[in-house]
Fold this protein.
Amino acid sequence: MTRTLSMPFALFIIVCAGCSSHHLEKYDFQGAGFLYRSTADPAAGMVHIHIEGFTDTPHPVVAAAAGIGSNILSEEARQKLDRAVRPAGVAAAVAKGVERTVNTYMGGRTVPALEDDPRFIVETVLRSCEIRSLASGLFLHVSAKSTIIDRATGRCIWDEVEASSVPLRYTPGGDVPVALVRTAASIYNAVEFFKLTEGEIQDAVLEAAGRVGDRIGEELRDDYADSRGD
């Protein structure tokens, strides 16, 4: 049996209608300014924790740990996740995947504000964010939508919805080189995951969310290449 725990967060929302089709072929993006916005919709205001082999116990947080490890998740662990993982931050990490693609392959440039007169606005909406503990390991499942809008007309010229599960893994920040990661292995035990510091939990979740963003970016790169023909 699988159960779900939910943790509420305050959030705001940007609403954008979907594109009926992609229109990348009609635009020259070289040197164009792009402004990036990200947010979470109401469904992403709850962080869901899916547990395989769940059995009922009196306290829902204690119950979440059943069948995962030898230790029990505490209220302190629940509060740690609440503090460490914010939907707005997850949405921003996903948005970076689109930004990398625009800057790397399409010749766009990032601008920080509307006052910088961007030609395009990229809006990324986090639809859901779940931590899934499976027999094969611990995963972050993210559903998100990214949309590119022509600011002059308000027209949606491209969008993509991605729902992906990626392994949670920990890479230290600070001055530690990327090649010298403390561990690149997936975090298979949820109890061990919650023993990490708040900063380490945040780093692991945002790194995984960034990989989901890269998948959206890959779709954009492919569509951009198709729009340019052979």
In short: The CA atoms of residues 121 and 154 lie 9 Å apart. The two ends are 51 Å apart (CA to CA).
